[in-house]
Design goal:
Number of domains: 2
Strand content: under 5%
Helix content: 55-70%
Strand order of the largest sheet: 1-2
Distance between the termini: 39 Å
Length: 240
């Protein structure tokens, strides 16, 4: 598996932002009232991820370490503004549905996390594919949640009625509690698939990084995790 393909596999399966790393939960729970909203939010985030990863990777040797996070935020905010204007101009219906959550992509931990942990340390092409993989993984997660919520809560998928007229929608699934129910069910399903694969002798690789906890993270300085150092056995004192 070459490096570019590995980055896509990583984002879709191994470190899926929604079902494995549990990142970006605010838009995941808020905008997935329908499949259209889910795929719209996911693709918007994917576009920002790809472009910001590309530019940050190109500038990785120019941006001083002391100002890297402000610089990353400026880069991400610039691309979010472009996406925001494009949605408002060409997809006003989707823009109105997503509302405030488009500008909030700027502070999405998926984007800033990939910029700091990968794009700022790797060449341009792998960084682009890392953005593609993580973005598609995020889009897949949001779309799955949106499909389930819309189907159970309204009897529709992508606005098309698929349930019979006699079906009585469970409106709670298009409300806030429904997002938690569906997310929990899908995460449980993924964990069951992982365990079944492990029993067949095909264990799925474990996540590395934020999804695995600070103790096993190889890049704790990227997210402030360096403030949480493993304790030693002799009285819990830190090693200097």
């Amino acid at each position: 598996m070459n490096k570019c393909t590995e980055r896509i596999y990583n984002g879709l399966i191994k470190e899926n932002p929604t079902f494995v790393l549990m990142l970006g939960m605010c838009p995941t729970l808020a905008v997935t009232t329908s499949a259209t909203n889910g795929i719209g939010m996911g693709l918007s985030t994917t576009a920002v991820l790809i472009m910001s990863n590309m530019l940050i990777s190109m500038l990785r040797k120019i941006i001083p370490d002391s100002v890297r996070m402000p610089a990353f935020i400026v880069v991400v905010a610039s691309f979010v503004t472009i996406v925001d204007f494009l949605l408002e101009g060409f997809l006003p219906g989707l823009y109105d549905s997503l509302g405030l959550y488009i500008p909030l992509i700027v502070v999405n931990c998926i984007i800033l996390g990939r910029a700091e942990s990968y794009a700022s340390k790797n060449p341009v092409l792998p960084s682009i594919f890392d953005g593609v993989g993580m973005g598609l993984g995020f889009t897949f997660g949001l779309t799955c949640i949106g499909i389930v919520r819309e189907l159970i809560g309204a009897g529709q998928i992508f606005g098309v009625q698929v349930m019979p007229d006699s079906y009585v929608p469970f409106t709670i699934f298009v409300l806030a509690p429904g997002a938690f129910f569906v997310l929990a069910a899908l995460v449980a399903l993924m964990n069951k698939i992982k365990r079944a694969a492990a029993k067949r002798g095909k264990p799925m690789p474990e996540a590395v990084g934020c999804g695995a906890g600070c103790a096993s993270c190889q890049n704790r300085t990227a997210c402030g995790g360096h403030l949480i150092r493993p304790e030693t056995a002799d009285g819990g004192k830190e090693k200097e």
